[in-house]
Specification:
- The chain is about 35% helix and about 10% strand.
- The chain has about 280 residues and is α/β, with parallel strands linked by helices.
- It folds into 3 domains: about 60 residues, no CATH class; about 110 residues, 3-Layer(aba) Sandwich (Aspartate Aminotransferase, domain 2), CATH 3.40.640.10; about 80 residues, no CATH class.
- The strands form 2 sheets. Strands 2-1-3-4 form a 4-stranded parallel sheet, sandwiched between helices. A 3-stranded parallel sheet has the order 5-6-7.
- The chain binds pyridoxal-5'-phosphate.
- Pyridoxal-5'-phosphate binds next to α4.
Length: about 280
């Protein structure tokens, strides 16, 4: 320590503030180079996990904290921060698409997403098609064996139409497409996308099944109160069905392909409603 120059001493200063300071405002850490206690720790680093710090652009206490809070806000499991929304869109393109693939972009998408496809992706052999987000039925006709990714945006940029996301997702699932949603406008406050995107579970129940059943005049709940008896049980075809006694059961399956066991594809609106009507007799 003794022979250090003043600049080195200022950077590697022996004073450490006491731990335990906490304020509503998270401290702002700005960094590029990260200091490791020794070479072994440097070699053991793994930037993919948030167990430690490897490089200022991969994470500081400030950015990790922000990532975790955004994940909570949006109902996501993980969050990766990027310097801008357009950088995030670019990462989705670069991470998921290869030469020869095609991406489907809504006509009312944030303009630079479309322009990136028109001017940049095309140079790398990645094609795109624009689709009308208000015509989910027409989407199927635009999907080719090359289609890999479906962009959703709700509401769409500038014109603010809100598409039928459940219907668009149903087509994407049926065709095995990866789905990305630009949630700039919903921001996790106006709209929680993972509720809808979650495959199965209560998200699908809350955003797809229950509204559909309520619109048709039924009451749908995830759990009954002690004194309630259901008129009908809706069960996942793939899982075990709890003993329902004399209560009719409609089994809903995750795959489009008819499995011949009387189950109904769970995004088939008409099929589900018809099975419910038949089972409860109204
Ligand atoms: C819907 C939508 N997506 C993405 C972006 C891009 O965000 P940024 O300006 O941070 O690149 C914007 C910006 O206005 C936007 O409105």
């Amino acid at each position: 320590m003794a022979d250090r120059s003043l600049p080195t001493t200022l950077i590697h200063h022996p004073y450490q503030p006491p731990a335990g300071f906490e304020a509503p405002q998270v401290g702002v850490h700005k960094a590029s180079t990260v200091i490791f206690p020794d070479v072994a720790s440097l070699r053991a680093r793994d930037w993919k996990h948030k167990a430690g710090y490897t490089y200022g652009l991969h994470g500081t206490p400030t950015t990790f904290t922000l990532e975790e809070r955004i994940a909570t806000l949006e109902g996501g499991r993980h969050c990766v921060l990027l310097p801008s929304g357009l950088a995030a869109i670019s990462l989705v393109h670069l991470g998921l698409l290869d030469a020869g693939d095609e991406v489907l972009i809504p006509e009312n998408a944030y303009g630079p997403c479309r322009e990136q496809a028109q001017h940049e992706l095309v140079r790398w052999g990645i094609g795109h098609r624009l689709y009308d987000p208000l015509q989910p039925e027409a989407l199927r006709g635009l999907i080719t064996p090359k289609t890999r990714l479906l962009w959703l945006e709700a509401p769409g940029s500038v014109t603010m139409e809100f598409p039928d996301l459940a219907a668009l997702l149903a087509v994407a699932r049926e065709q095995g497409l990866v789905v990305a949603l630009d949630n700039t406008w919903g921001a996790g406050l106006a709209f929680q996308p993972f509720d809808l995107l979650a495959d199965g579970g209560s998200g699908w129940m809350r955003t797809f099944l229950r509204p559909m059943l309520e619109q048709a005049g039924y009451r749908a709940v995830e759990r009954l109160k002690d004194d309630e008896r259901p008129a009908l049980v809706l069960a996942q075809a793939e899982g075990p069905v709890a003993a329902a006694g004399a209560t009719p059961v409609v089994r809903l399956r995750a795959s489009v392909a008819d499995t011949g066991d009387g189950s109904v594809y769970r995004y088939d609106r008409e099929g589900v409603l018809q099975a419910v009507r038949q089972a409860v007799g109204r």
